Each structure stands twice: as structure tokens, then as C-alpha cells.
User: What shape does this take?
Amino acid sequence: MEMRELNRLAVNDILNEIIEYEMAGVVRYAHSSLMITGPYRQPIVTFLQEQANESLQHALQAGELITGFGGHPSQNIAFIEESHDHSVLTILKESLAHEEHAVNLYKKLLTEVADASIMLEEYARGQIGMEEQHALEIEKMLRDFSE
Assistant: This one.
């Protein structure tokens, strides 16, 4: 298999988009964890806080790659839509949408690095797997809610 040349500028741009989105995830999940009420509050708060911490780790991982490629990590965060509906159902639905968008960002990275960097392909695949797993967990949590 012949490898093509890695476009570091394009990779860094996508990684910065990932950083901004993951940092928005930190804020989204931390905020959501504060807004949860009701009898099932504690396990949901714990889950959301774990997601906030993991989003921070994902942003830091992307930043390490950017600096490794001679780039500069973004200090911005992506736009966070605020519905002002803090029901558990809405928070979980918004969390699911967030995870699905994250999957798409990592797929965008995978497309860019395909056949150019095995390390980045593996990184992107691993992140896609984690984000898909989070989405699956949220889907399972949503099964107890009826509309």
C-alpha cells in the first residue's frame, strides 16, 4: 500500500475544530450536570461529569497532536445551543446530538488522514469508537422516557 503525503495544515484545522467542539462539550456536560434534578439525579450527574472530564481529555489529546505537527491549538470553543429546557429527557437528547456530531468530526479527520498516517487513522478510529459508545449509552438511557 502506498501512503500519500499528510496535509498537516488540513489536519491541524480539523483537530482545532475538534478541540473547540470538545471544549464546548466540557461546558455543556458540566452545565447539564448542575441542572439535573429528580430521583435519578446522582447517577446521571456522575455520568455527565464523567463526559465533561472525558471531553477535556479529548481536547488535550487533539492539542498535543496539533503542537506535534507544529500548529497552534485553538483557545475558542464551539457554539453551545442553550434550549433552557433542563429536563432529563432534553439533556439526554442534547447529549446524544452532541455525541453524534463528535463522531462526524472524527470521521472527517479519518477521511483526511486515510492512507497518509496510520497513527492518525488509529487515533481517529479510536475516538469514533468511543463517541459511538457514548451515543449508545445515551440511547439506552433514553429508552425509559416516553414522549
